[in-house]
């Protein structure tokens, strides 16, 4: 990568369909080089289908990539990294769910998640630099479990404080810290290049 080649940011959403006022959607609108994994039309709960969708987006991107994943998108990213070897310049992994706790109403049950391949979360070092944003009051994750996951992935842990699940339901739309963190990952990737 040349010093002037800026990475493409690839947005990896969670299990929810497109949400116009979600911080990832708003971040994507502010970026020049961006691609996003689109909502699935079929096999919506299949981890394998979601990993394949991420791989398909990445196959269409030339040059360096920074991943920006939220919620189940973090797990998709980690599973993708176990199966594929495309170089990634860095990743922002925000509020991954803790599949060891019951998820709130409206989310898949543990049985549904297990049937669709979600319940074995890899705990190996990721082959790229990453930052894991952890909420102290996320209804979908135990703080300590997420910190342990981040450490097993070799990620920098970023305590976000009491931000819930960092989604519109928690009162978050535009999230300025995401822009600063993505800019940091892009700058680091450009310098390393």
From TrEMBL:
Keywords in alphabetical order: Hydrolase
Superkingdom of the organism of origin: Bacteria
Hydrolase found in the keyword field: yes
InterPro entries, alphabetized: AB_hydrolase_fold, RBBP9/YdeN
Molecular function (Gene Ontology), one example: hydrolase activity
Family annotation (Gene3D superfamilies): alpha/beta hydrolase
The keyword Hydrolase is assigned to this record: yes
Full protein name: RBBP9/YdeN family alpha/beta hydrolase
